[in-house]
TrEMBL record, chains A, B:
Species assigned in the record: Micromonospora pallida
Alphabetized Gene3D superfamilies for the sequence: B-lactam Antibiotic, Isopenicillin N Synthase, Chain (2.60.120.330)
InterPro entries in the record: IPNS-like_sf
The protein's name in its UniProt record: Aspartyl/Asparaginyl beta-hydroxylase
Length: 190, 190
């Protein structure tokens, strides 16, 4: 787990580590990522209500590459099968971003959260890596049973969130929150 | 402030007091309150998107008593003017509920929060008293700058929330959250 620097989130003032959030230092160019995202969304719009998503990684031979992985886990193929860069993204900054990670990624998606909405409180099967592309101080993750709040900063790094714990994400800002989210073989324990 | 028992919310395990939440023991009958609410909503529907509200207290002589107080503070009369029971509620359990408080209330409203929505992060002018009528473990207040999460239990008591701190409320459940909310001359400090 040497890729992950464990950070103290809500409990910072107590010096305790919640085990909920880790950081992978990537040094991505957030402006370039935002520009690549704008370009992409002008060609492929976000189509879902609330959980608006677009696939960065796809399954080989998919007939619906942009959206096939964008449903609930129970309704799609095993997450690890979405492991190839969407062919249309070759040569874009997304290719560089995916390659920058120190571990292989799967089911990488662009994920938008609309103003004044939140996800149903849930657990995921695995932890998730998040890179904030466009966000504010008012769009945190809330670990409901742990009473923890964590904001992913748009600082060019990836944050490993232990989303196997009961959680939601909310957007209390008036602007869209845009994240890159990916799966990876990383256990959120040291 | 002898009416308020200060409770430890998110920091319970540390034994510290956040100063964000207090409780007023009222011993209300939540089932009776839920039934009175059902009766009321069958006659006067909730009309707003997201912040669906209905006025329990009104201004004398209002021509739109049910909804006049249900806009943002900047768009309505001073909150303290909404201090009379809505005439149609005389003889209902709502009359008893308002009278049960040890301090005068104003701008008491029924407030619904739809599944998978949250309010814009904001501060209120004053603290607020909340009585949960219908809620779940997945519909907390989030004090965004304080990294605190608090769920109002549907236990027949009123909770004084220091909503002058930056906050939102979210509903990550699949059911409607229904609260009674009121203003009162209570300073959320001891």
């Amino acid at each position: 787990m040497s890729h992950v620097n464990w950070v103290v989130s809500a409990r910072e003032e107590n010096g305790s580590d919640t085990g909920l959030v880790g950081r992978i230092d990537l040094g991505l160019d957030v402006d370039e990522l935002a520009k690549a995202t704008d370009d992409l969304l002008s060609r492929h719009p976000l189509i879902f209500d609330q959980t608006q998503q677009l696939a960065i990684q796809v399954r080989p031979g998919s007939t619906d590459p942009w959206y096939e992985s964008c449903y609930q886990e129970k309704d799609i193929a095993p997450e690890r099968e979405y492991a190839e860069l969407n062919p249309e993204l070759k040569g874009t900054y997304f290719e560089e971003v995916v390659a920058r990670f120190p571990v292989p990624l799967f089911r990488t998606r662009l994920l938008a959260l609309t103003s004044r909405t939140c996800y149903s409180v849930h657990r995921d099967e695995t932890s998730r890596l998040h890179v904030a592309i466009q966000t504010t101080e008012h769009a945190p993750f809330v670990f409901v049973e742990r009473n923890e709040v964590f904001r992913v900063p748009a600082d060019g790094n990836a944050y490993l969130l232990n989303t196997t714990e009961v959680h939601t994400a909310m957007n209390g800002a008036r602007t869209l929150r845009l994240h890159l989210v990916a799966g990876a073989e990383l256990d959120p324990s040291r």
